[in-house]
Design a protein that fits this description.
Blueprint lengths: L1 E2 L5 E6 L4 E8 L2 E2 L10 E7 L5 H5 L7 E5 L3 E2 L18 E3 L2 E2 L12 H7 L3 E4 L3 H11 L2 E7 L4 H10 L9 H4 L32 E6 L4 H9 L3 E6 L4 H4 L6 E4 L10 H8 L7 E4 L1 H9 L3 E18 L5 E13 H4 L12 E6 L5 E6 L4 E4 L14 H8 L2
Parallel strand pairs: 5-6, 6-8, 7-9, 8-10, 12-13, 12-14, 14-15, 15-20
Antiparallel strand pairs: 1-4, 2-3, 2-11, 3-10, 5-11, 16-17, 16-18, 18-19, 19-20
Helix pairs in contact: 8-9
């Protein structure tokens, strides 16, 4: 694919043949993507947050996906170095109604258009995103491709239908770290507008947490350290010995992209660790932990992508407004009756979605296991659920 020097008309073509026209911005390329990891081809989903576009674009969980923003104006506050959730974006592209090319914010360091071009991420602007979102709600998430106006639609349709989708794909290996950290790190940087209570820690105090990186958002690491934990990050392919190095007090499984059932190695490793050490899972970690306990997961119709998803705490009845990004979910019936291999332990469903009843959390007190499907660190999003990190650390 060759980078162009000027903006041109383009279109999004979905696997069912539906076409949405617009203007190409960000990274502009000609020709069909030659690889499934190339920019411009992926599963098309919609994201309902009214703010936080930088955190969305930089979330590694969107690997292999093209994100449609339902908020009409994107890029108003530009891009800054503090708000990114990973060193570089991993998603396949974005679709917007209107992309602002002249941001207005004292924190802005570059425009979103410049940021996307620098990281080779295509954007299709001037799209009827309401019509696209309604179509995705009716049909479910679809494979799609972003192309120049002059690209043959029949050839493009054959290419997008050849895209394998997300089911069965291990995308974690494409976004996770490859080597474990040597030591547990202390302290949390003072990040602007951060609302997590900062509790000082030293090399001698604070719980030691091994954070398994499956495509982790930086906010998870920061939230733990700001609450006094000492954190050591290891890759998803780490062995049990590497995970337990340094005698951690607990494990935390991060968010990440793709199909949880494809992570067979991590699932097997966790089965050997359940009951030996307290474990918490977030998002993909929630799903992988359920699989390790003998449960099942399934692909959702169009997933949960936004910072405004209401979740009910089953025990207290309290409602949390949460940040979410997932296209797979845990089947609660598969967890009923027991978990933990030969140890028959009771599973408690702790949280559920008020939108569609999807399982949003479970716990097994007997094995010191807990998991949530939403993001307690938010980034971006409301901070209703931030106490979950503190509860986990307090229970170690």
């Amino acid at each position: 694919m060759t980078k162009l020097t000027s903006r041109v008309s383009g279109y999004l073509l979905l696997e069912d043949g539906r076409r949405f026209d617009g203007v190409l911005m960000g990274y502009l390329a000609e020709g069909l993507p030659a690889e499934n990891t190339a920019p411009g081809i992926g599963e098309v989903v919609f994201q309902t947050g009214m703010s936080g576009y930088q955190e969305v674009i930089s979330d590694p969980s969107y690997r292999g996906q093209i994100v449609t923003f339902t908020s009409p104006h994107i890029g108003n506050t530009g891009i800054n170095k503090e708000d990114s959730e990973a060193p570089s974006p991993a998603l396949a592209g974005i679709i917007v109604r209107s992309l602002t090319d002249r941001p207005s914010s004292w924190r802005s360091e570059e425009s979103l258009d410049q940021f996307l071009a620098r990281h080779r991420i295509p954007c299709l602007s001037e799209v009827d995103t309401r019509a696209l979102t309604r179509h995705l709600r009716e049909t479910g998430a679809l494979r799609g491709i972003i192309l120049q106006e002059n690209t043959d639609a029949e050839v493009a349709l054959a290419r997008v239908r050849a895209f394998p989708g997300l089911i069965g794909r291990d995308l974690v290996q494409e976004v996770a770290v490859s080597a474990p950290e040597k030591d547990f790190r202390t302290g949390g940087e003072d990040v602007l507008f951060d609302e997590f209570p900062k509790k000082g820690s030293s090399e001698q105090d604070g719980a030691k947490i091994t954070l398994i990186h499956c495509g982790m958002k930086n906010g998870i690491d920061l939230a733990l350290r700001r609450q006094g934990a000492r954190v050591r990050i290891v890759p998803a392919r780490a062995s049990a010995e590497e995970i337990l190095h340094g005698e951690p007090d607990g494990l935390l499984l991060s968010n990440g992209p793709g199909d949880p059932e494809a992570l067979e190695g991590l699932i097997q490793t966790l089965r050997g660790l359940v009951g030996r050490i307290p474990i918490m899972g977030i998002c993909l970690g929630h799903q992988v932990l359920a699989l390790a306990l003998g449960g099942r997961t399934y692909k959702m119709k169009f997933g949960h992508h936004g910072i405004n998803h209401p979740v009910r705490d089953v025990q207290t009845g309290a409602v949390l407004v949460t940040s979410q990004n997932h296209g797979f979910a845990v089947d609660p019936e598969s967890l009923n009756g027991g978990a933990g291999g030969e140890r028959r332990a009771s599973v408690i469903i702790t949280h559920e979605s008020l939108n569609d009843g999807v399982t949003e959390g479970f716990a097994i007190p007997e094995l010191k296991v807990k998991a949530v499907q939403f993001h307690p660190e938010a980034a971006a999003g409301p901070h209703d659920a931030r106490g979950i990190f503190g509860d986990f650390l307090a229970g170690l």
